[in-house]
Amino acid sequence: MTETRTPESEAPLALSEREQRGNIWRLAIAQALAGANSVVVYATGAIVGNTLAPSPILATLPLSIFVVGMALCILPAGVIAGRYGRRAAFLAGAGAGVLAGLLAMYASFVGSFWIFCLSTFFGGAYAAVVLSFRFAAADGVAPSRKAQALSMVMAGGVAAGVVGPQLVNWTMNLSPHLFVMTFFAQAAVAAVSAFILFGVRLPKPTLAEKTGGRPLGIIARQPRFIAAATCGAISYTLMNFLMTAAPLAMHMHGHSTESSNLGLQWHVIAMFAPSFFTGKLIARFGAERVMLVGLLLIGLSAAVGLGGIEVAHFWWTLILLGLGWNFGFLGASALVLECHSDTEKTRVQSLNDFIVFGLMALGSFVSGGILSVYGWNTVLWVSFPPLAITVIALAVLQFRAPAANASVEQ
């Protein structure tokens, strides 16, 4: 791999053990609260969209716009973090989360599909910022502990898997307008997250971080970066592609909203629960192997979905999908940390996430259309070709990388 060490004078100061632990706990709690925001969007988006949309084919458009909001706001969030520090970006994201809930609440009152779409855009902006929590946890931490710090913050999403769906179940019928109080709760939770993030202590951006580092084009051509970005993009795209369609597919096959919410709950738990040990697996077996297992689990989830349309089939599809996403995405994220120096981290991490969610946005747009026109089975079958291509590409890159690294060392 290309040398990425930072000169000692330019390296950001390491944090104390107490500061590291405090950051991890605060970021994990904020991850849980923000994860509940995303669960609310996924649990309600297609159903509200189906109710308000001028055409059934637009039912999942709010979810697609949520992903567009993520993709478009990742680079601006990176600019804010690089110039003013990560905490400034975190608070801006939480503000977008509050606005998302309030706009969705108003859209449900007046029956406006397009205002609801605008609300999900701001929800996506919030989610984009939240994704940087995992990288922020590694700031000021010894290299040998970065993967575990990243993993522990992602583990905060386990609480989101419980809180999010239950938040929807408890609040969706508290008003004559479906989900109005759910969206109010969504805004309140984002406000609480902002309060918690005020206490995060991270190294300030150095002058070298603002102006230094290699050109992004050189970094992006590294085999490891290509592998990380590709696997992260496909893992997240296929997870979103199937999860976006699943609640509406369950609704179309006569299953209750409570059943789909419970399926999403177990899906989100499966997404984040392995994070308690994924970091250790990455340290022991390497990021590439963990990524490969994740891709295979995503393929298995689609195969289970093809087995039938009972509630159990949907639930197991969502659970395996969550497990596959965890290994694929966390493995890819850990590999990104090996591709840059400290002075390059904000730009490289933002580029990686932009690639991931740009592709994810394209997949999200076609998910609802395929479901409404061709059905749930077609959605599942469509996931296999990109999965197979990614597994092959990852295997090829893994064979080529040692030779490339050897030539650099010589």
From TrEMBL:
InterPro entries xref list: MFS, MFS_dom, MFS_trans_sf
Molecular function per GO: transmembrane transporter activity
Keywords: Membrane, Transmembrane, Transmembrane helix
Major facilitator superfamily (MFS) profile domain segment(s): 224-410
Transmembrane segments: 24-45, 57-81, 88-107, 113-137, 149-168, 180-202, 223-243, 263-283, 290-309, 315-339, 351-373, 379-397
Top-level division of the source organism's lineage: Bacteria
Any coiled-coil regions, as ranges: none
Gene3D superfamilies: MFS general substrate transporter like domains
The protein, known as: MFS family permease
Record organism: Microbulbifer hydrolyticus
